[in-house]
Design a protein that fits this description.
- The chain contains twelve helices and 13 strands.
- The mean pLDDT is 97.
- The strands form three sheets. The chain has a five-stranded antiparallel sheet with strand order 4-5-8-6-7. Strands 9, 10, 11, 12 and 13 form a five-stranded antiparallel sheet that branches.
- It is 26% helix and 22% strand.
- Among the domains are: 110 residues, Uridine Diphospho-n-acetylenolpyruvylglucosamine Reductase, domain 3; 101 residues, CO dehydrogenase flavoprotein, C-terminal domain (Enolase-like, domain 1).
- It is globular and about 60 Å long.
- The longest helix has 18 residues.
- 47% of the residues are buried.
- Helix 5 packs antiparallel against helix 8 and helix 10 packs antiparallel against helix 11.
- Bound molecules: iron/sulfur cluster.
- The site of iron/sulfur cluster (SF4) has 14 residues, from loops.
């Protein structure tokens, strides 16, 4: 670990003053501290934001508002979240471990870095950590890597379960920085790797997430998160499905669907949504609708199983959701 300056501001204005590319904001620390110990992240300034007034879980006519510093476990346990947005509670409870969920913040979860092992090993080539150095995963161990949205420069998956759930529900993310405040749809917040995999989102240098708003909808309360992984605890997704459905009797009026564990960012599946709209909730409907889910996928040497796994994960989510009615 290298030397850095440290501050603990109490107001947002102080936190973002002078913040730039050399600044890291510290919330739960469950990603940042690990990566600093490994020399993967080497900020010159660490700003502890835990004293900022960025808390609160509230529900109003616009939807669910969650402050960036709320802890994952608190959001998962919230009565309104569990009743009106069960997908969010499920995605949180299937993330990490209980200890980590007690520490990690909502804002930090959305900004967590990839679990690609090469990214965390400074002795290997990694374009995301060191632009232009190469991608060790392309010819190395790539079983857990992405098949959608990849490039020749990077094939790392986005690791957040919560982000997949929030993208499916049409969430907005609120930001503040030197140029003021702005709100960005989470669906457009994350960047594809292209030739610049070190650029992971639209955050400007020194900009801070202050919170999220999940809109009210006819589908959020009828939602599910299914996560397939190598072990049933403390593991990242090989494939996951966030599914929310507005029903008309046994017919799907409309569906919102996103996938995790397969894309370089949370992966919306609009073609699957269109294929489900207006159809009866039957096994045949689900089989047919998910046929296009992995269109455009580029499997790697160790993860040719992922397109089929993605389709089956979606079918399982749709089936369990339909049976729970
Ligand atoms: Fe680095 Fe991305 Fe390649 Fe992993 S997949 S080694 S993060 S460039």
């Amino acid at each position: 670990m290298r030397a850095y300056t440290f501050s603990q501001p109490r107001v947002v204005r102080e936190a973002i003053a002078h913040a730039g590319t050399d600044t890291a904001f510290l919330a739960g620390g469950t990603t940042l501290v690990d990566l600093m110990k490994l020399d993967v992240m080497t900020p010159a300034r660490v700003v502890d934001i835990n004293r900022l007034p960025l808390r609160g879980i509230t529900l109003d006519r616009d939807g669910l508002h969650v402050g960036a510093l709320e802890r994952m476990s608190d959001v998962a346990a919230d009565h309104n979240v569990r009743r009106d947005y069960p997908l969010i509670a499920q995605a949180l409870e299937l993330s990490a471990s209980a200890q980590l969920r007690n520490m990690a913040s909502i804002g930090g979860n959305l900004l967590q870095r990839t679990r690609c092992g090469y990214f965390r090993d400074v002795t290997t080539a990694c374009n995301k950590r060191e632009p232009g150095s190469g991608c060790s995963a392309l010819t190395g161990i790539n079983r857990t890597h992405a098949i959608l949205g990849t490039s020749d420069a990077c094939v790392a998956t986005h690791p957040s379960d919560l982000a997949v759930a929030l993208v499916a529900l049409g969430t907005d993310v609120h930001l503040v920085g030197g140029q003021g405040t702005r709100t960005v749809p989470l669906d457009t917040f994350y960047a594809l790797p292209g030739s610049t995999p070190q650029v992971e989102n639209v955050l400007r240098p020194g900009e801070l997430i202050t919170g999220i708003t999940v809109p009210r909808s006819m589908w959020a309360a009828n939602s599910i998160y299914v996560k397939i992984r190598d072990r049933q605890s403390y593991e990242f997704a090989l494939a996951s499905a966030a599914v929310a459905v507005e029903w008309r009797g046994r017919t799907i009026r409309q569906a919102r669907i996103a996938a995790g564990g397969v894309g370089t960012r949370p992966w919306r599946l609009p073609a699957v949504e269109r294929a489900l709209a207006g159809r009866p909730a039957t096994a045949d409907t689900f089989e047919e609708a998910v046929r296009t889910a992995a269109d455009g996928a580029l499997p790697l040497s160790h993860n040719a199983f992922k397109p089929a796994l993605l389709r089956q994960t979606l079918i399982r989510a749709l089936t369990v959701l339909a049976e729970s009615r």
